[in-house]
């Protein structure tokens, strides 16, 4: 077995000797690396998916500041729970359905978005909001085997008028009552203020905060583990040792422990290292990571190679 570049994930080892363009494209892409908060959300999703339908299904509110990883976690959850075709009836089932709350949405618009996420097209003329709760109408949620509704940007409910805020939340609660699926809502730190507007709905929600990494020992251990995992994705000839004390302290200072900021600093440092043809990412590359390197020569090389 070839033991060269053992510090790089096997899937990406061939990139180490690839062109600068390919390596740059790779390090600037988006990747999943496990860390404590993300795994906690994944564990919750597993629990909700395995909870039998019941009158008061459990729900989860995931709150965090911008760049705390909410969108990345949602994409991961959807990737892990893709729609599947039931070969017995030829119906595509959606165990997890995802929507995003936008400003000034009303129940009908929220319902339209849910139907669209399940690939269902129902003309507006065929239903009213009250008809949605008519037990004699087609139960799309049962038909599509929906177990969890993911709602992103739940805090945007607060951007509507007070009465509409309560109407929207009551609509979501009635949907879960009738169809007995769980809700996993994501939002900023003010998201909890939206949920508590409906007391009955609020009692069903467990709360989970996506915290910053901090300097205390258990948080530092998770941070170093994340950095070590991320390093395996980077196509460099030698280990960068991102989890060593000097870089950990520097990244904490630069990012404030916010996962999105950490990842952007690593990406930018990696681009500097590749442009400088360095064998690994060094401390100096992080110190240069406030701005991108000059890529004009690289772009010219790419154009010339196509001629």
User: Could you give the distance between the termini?
Assistant: 38 Å
Q: Which CATH class of the largest domain is shown? A: Alpha Beta
Architecture per CATH nomenclature, i.e. the level-2 architecture of the largest domain: 3-Layer(aba) Sandwich
Strand content: 5-15%
Q: Give the averaged pLDDT, no decimals.
A: 91
Tell me the domain tally: 2
Q: What class would the helix/strand composition place it in?
A: alpha/beta
Named CATH topology of the largest domain: Rossmann fold
List the strand order in the largest sheet. 4-5-6-1-7
The fourth-level CATH homologous superfamily of the largest domain is P-loop containing nucleotide triphosphate hydrolases
Query: What global shape is seen?
Result: elongated
Please give the largest β-sheet. 5 strands, parallel
Roughly how many Å is the radius of gyration? 23 Å
H/E element string?
HHEHEEEHHHEHEHHEHHHHH
Binned, the helix content reads 40-55%
| Secondary structure: number of strands | 7
Total of helices:
14
Low-confidence stretches: 300-307
């Amino acid at each position: 077995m070839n033991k060269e570049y053992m510090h790089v994930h096997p899937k990406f080892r061939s990139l180490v000797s690839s062109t600068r363009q390919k390596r740059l494209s790779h390090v600037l892409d988006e990747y999943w690396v496990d860390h404590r908060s993300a795994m906690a959300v994944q564990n919750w999703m597993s629990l909700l998916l395995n909870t039998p339908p019941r009158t008061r299904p459990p729900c989860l509110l995931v709150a965090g500041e911008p760049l705390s990883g909410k969108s990345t976690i949602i994409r991961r959850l959807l990737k892990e729970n893709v729609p599947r075709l039931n070969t017995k009836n030829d119906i595509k089932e959606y165990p997890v359905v995802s929507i995003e709350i936008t400003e000034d949405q009303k129940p009908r618009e929220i319902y339209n978005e849910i139907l669209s996420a399940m690939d269902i097209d129902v003309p507006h003329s065929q239903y009213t909001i009250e008809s949605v709760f008519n037990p004699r109408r087609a139960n799309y949620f049962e038909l599509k085997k929906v177990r969890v509704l993911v709602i992103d940007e739940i805090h945007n409910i607060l951007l509507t008028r007070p009465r509409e805020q309560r109407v929207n939340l009551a609509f979501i609660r009635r949907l879960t009552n009738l169809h007995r699926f769980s809700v996993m809502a994501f939002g900023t730190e003010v998201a909890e203020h939206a949920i508590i507007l409906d007391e009955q709905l609020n009692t069903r929600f467990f709360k989970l905060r996506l915290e910053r990494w901090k300097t205390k020992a258990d948080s530092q251990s998770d941070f170093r583990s994340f950095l070590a995992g991320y390093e395996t994705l980077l196509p460099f000839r030698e280990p960068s040792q991102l989890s060593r004390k000097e870089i950990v302290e520097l990244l904490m200072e630069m990012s404030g422990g916010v996962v999105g900021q950490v990842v952007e600093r690593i990406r930018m440092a990696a681009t500097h290292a590749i442009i400088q043809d360095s064998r690994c990412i060094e401390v100096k590359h992080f110190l240069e990571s406030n701005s991108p390197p000059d890529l004009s020569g690289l772009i010219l090389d790419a154009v010339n190679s196509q001629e």
